[in-house]
Amino acid sequence: MLAKTFGCAVYGVDASIVTIEVNSTPGTKHFMVGLPDNAVKESWFRTVTAIKQSGFWLPITRVVINLAPADLKKEGSAYDLPIALGLLQASEQINTDKLSSFLIMGELSLDGEVRPIRGALPMAIEGRRNKYKGFILPRENAEEAAIVNDLDIIGVENLSEAVEFITGKKDIKPHQVNTREIFYDQLNDYESDFQDVQGQENIKRALEIAAAGGHNVIMIGPPGAGKTMLAKRLPSILPPLNLHEALETTKIHSVAGKLGTDATLISNRPFRSPHHTISDVALVGGGGFPQPGEISLAHNGVLFLDELPEFKRSVLEVMRQPLEERRITISRAKFSVDYPANFMLVASMNPCPCGFYNHPDKECVCGPGMVQKYLNKISGPLLDRIDLHVEVTPVTFDEMTAIRRNESSAEIRERVIKARERQLQRFKNERNIYSNSMMPPSMVKTICEINQAGRTLLKTAIEKLGLSARAYDRILKVSRTIADLGGTEEILIEHLAEAIQYRSLDREGWVA
């Protein structure tokens, strides 16, 4: 007898429908076709044992299992449950017409327990798009998949429960969540707040500008100056995610298996901080069967690289293209996948190996040329993609012990949101441009037009401070953001002056 069940294969951050065909005829042996990987091939042994442990039997017949489309590679252990139900239908132990109405995915343990899977959210989205009635999956993934409306999410704990539901012997109520309620409840749920930061007003200002324009930023300062502490608070002043961004972010984390059990919609902007020993594949994504990397997990949020010069040069260089295109394409011989990578890069570094170059109190013990050699670990093309260079100095004792009210993240965020609204209005007719940092050079000339006094100041800065040519566009973009924060359409001379000071590493002679 021939039986069909339906599942999904995830490629990139999207899913495709897979038809699992099980045919049982007189004979012996089993065959699995349709480009299964080792994990899928091994599902036969898990499935057979789970069927027997659940009180069913396996006929001694010739079984052919086909995963269609046959030219699409199938990966992972999530096909166990649909294969098991297909075997039971093909051996006539169950007889139901519900199998064609449901997507079915789940890994089976040897005792029949259904274990959680990756990518439940994109699978549910694909199921709704193809007008399936529901989705049978592990109970731990039900909360995640229930984000999708108009699809019955049936969470099961074991194979027996799945059989009882599909045959009508047990009624399982579809899992439901109020997506908007969850989204808005967690929208401002941040552990860290700028109100806790004493001093460092100039750094707070720089991070506010970075958040308002979506600019990449690097902080240079001695150990203990507060670089990491400030970076961790940056997501709390970024504009809140909208529902589309939240769904897109959740899909990526679902595919990567980073949501955890009983997880639901991600409502806050992600903050990823990989260790400097990370490999290039772990950072940008890839592998034999590609998975999203840290830059994609930071999509719509912040990627923080602490101690930037300690990262391998090859790791940093692979970020250059994603920083420009805001997505990464992983190519293999027979297929390629795209992952979104629209993130804010925030980096921090010591000014030298010992960490005390330019320190107001401590003396640098690095030998001649060591400071320049340390800074040269960061290539010019990568530095070219960072708009703000901020020097962080240690907080004095008086600033640390001062009793005063500091601005909260909520207050700073209000100004950032207003600045972003101006940018959205400005770029409403442009495709894939939502903030000042995304402007191409051709647009900078018209959007960031400056008066004669501004041109004179910029010319003087480039000549006197030794600023490089690559700093020109960056200064104009940052000054445009500063003007947006100030609520003015015209870029004033004070906006340019403030933007110029954020190009520390471009100055000739910054390292004496």
At CATH's second level, what is the architecture of the largest domain?
A: 3-Layer(aba) Sandwich
First-to-last CA distance: 82 Å
What value does the average pLDDT take?
Answer: 89
Strand content: 15-25%
Number of strands: 18
Helix content: 25-40%
Stated plainly, the CATH topology of the largest domain is called Rossmann fold
Task: Pick out its properties.
alpha/beta; elongated; 5-stranded parallel β-sheet; 4-stranded mixed β-sheet; 18 strands; 36% helix; Ribosomal Protein S5, domain 2
Summarize the structure.
The chain folds into two domains: 2-177, Ribosomal Protein S5, domain 2, CATH 3.30.230; 194-430, P-loop containing nucleotide triphosphate hydrolases (Rossmann fold, 3-Layer(aba) Sandwich), CATH 3.40.50. It has 22 helices and 18 strands.
Can you offer a commentary on this structure?
By secondary structure, the chain is an alpha/beta fold. The chain folds into two domains: 2-177, Ribosomal Protein S5, domain 2 (2-Layer Sandwich), CATH 3.30.230.10; 194-430, 3-Layer(aba) Sandwich (Rossmann fold). The protein is 36% helix and 16% strand. It contains 22 helices and 18 strands. The protein has a five-stranded parallel sheet with strand order 11-14-17-10-18. Strands 1-2-4-3 form a four-stranded mixed sheet. Helix 8 (201-213) packs parallel to helix 18. The radius of gyration is 28 Å and the shape is elongated. The model has no long low-confidence stretch (mean pLDDT 89).
